[in-house]
Amino acid sequence: GVRCGWVTGRRDSITNPKCPKITHHHKIGIKRTAARCCPDGWVGYGGKCYYFSEAEGDWNNSQSNCSSFSASLAEIDTPQEMAFIKRHKDLSEHWIGLRREPGQVWKWTNGTEFNHWFKVRAQGECAYLNDEAVTSSWCDTVRYWICSKPAGLTLREQNGAQGQAEMSELSS
Asked: Locate the C-type lectin domain: which residues (predicted)?
């Protein structure tokens, strides 16, 4: 798991950039910080963690690999998320979590119907991201892949008077 580092003082707060934080101050001098954290080797954005594979596989194998990390092939919900993923992937083509059965509508791996906020090029059954756009092809083509999952939540409490801190993982 990831440990989200932090230092707190009267004027400073330093935290791991993978862990955007939410801080609550209580009248009794306890500072509680909840941070969204990603595992080592994953990149965080918008409350999600992303893994960009170094291996290749067909669409089904790629989804199985993501499942082994309690994740799925990436579901891309906004233009901002798409821009983030394009900035972080290399020049290779990467499978994402969009698929359709022959003659059916596009669906994300969680079963949600795709709302067509971006165009999927070509007439394939599995979608991948290249340098320019989202394109589709036969699902048995071998490509890299991108996994996504919700970021874990870590809760920290600090006693303001004594400067002692406790950390507990809520989920990973």
From this structure: 45-148
* Cα distances (Å, whole numbers) of residue 54 to 77, 80, 123: 24, 24, 27
Single out the residue of 151, 157, 122 nearest to residue 49, CA to CA.
151
Q: In which region does residue 22 sit, left (phi positive, over 0), alpha (psi from -120 to 50) or beta (all else)?
A: beta
pTM of the entire predicted model: 0.71
pLDDT tens digits, 128-163: 999 889 999 999 999 999 999 999 876 655 555 444
| Coil/strand/helix, residue 37 | strand
Is 43 contained in some domain? no
Residue 45 lies in a domain: no
For residue 120, the enclosing domain spans: 51-148
Rounded Cα distance, 6 and 128, in Å: 37
Read off the tokens for 47: 């409350």
> What is the rounded CA–CA span in Å between residue 16 and residue 152?
14
Same domain, 68 and 143: yes
pLDDT score of 23 more than 50: no
